[in-house]
Amino acid sequence: MSLPRIEVKIRAANRPGVTKAHADVRLLFPNGDLDLIGFAVIKENGKSPWVGFPQNAGRSKFFPVVEASGEIRKAIVQEILNTYGESETNENNE
């Protein structure tokens, strides 16, 4: 089975901090689409950005909403980081 096509929409974070943006992912399959909302692009000073998967806050800890493993996880993370990098470059050029 091949991986689905992946589309990413980046939304800038509206608060200062290490969360620089949020990403929504659409996985396009031959027989339908799957939308995954609420990934976080985290960037700490002096470090490379990384992707946090969607999660909900519980009383004392966070719980995952979406989990992925293997090649699909790698593909989702890479597409989010690529799209985030492109959006950052476009903002700096404006």
Q: What is shown here, in short?
A:
This protein is α+β, with helices and mostly antiparallel strands and 94 residues long. It has one helix at 70-93, and strands at residues 5-12, 19-29, 32-42, 50-52, 55-57, 62-64.
Shape: globular
The biggest beta sheet is recorded as: 4 strands, antiparallel
Structural class: alpha+beta
| Number of domains as seen in the coordinates | 1
Helix content: 25-40%
Strands of the widest sheet, in order across it, are 1-2-3-4
Radius of gyration: 14 Å
> What count of helical segments does DSSP give?
1
Q: What are the defining features of this structure?
A:
41% strand; alpha+beta; 94 residues
Can you describe what's shown?
- This protein has 94 residues and is of the alpha+beta class.
- The chain is built from one helix and six strands, in the order E-E-E-E-E-E-H.
- The strands form two sheets. Strands 1-2-3-4 form a four-stranded antiparallel beta sheet, covered by helices on one side.
- A hairpin with a 6-residue loop joins strand 1 (5-12) and strand 2 (19-29).
- The radius of gyration is 14 Å and the shape is globular.
- The mean pLDDT is 93.
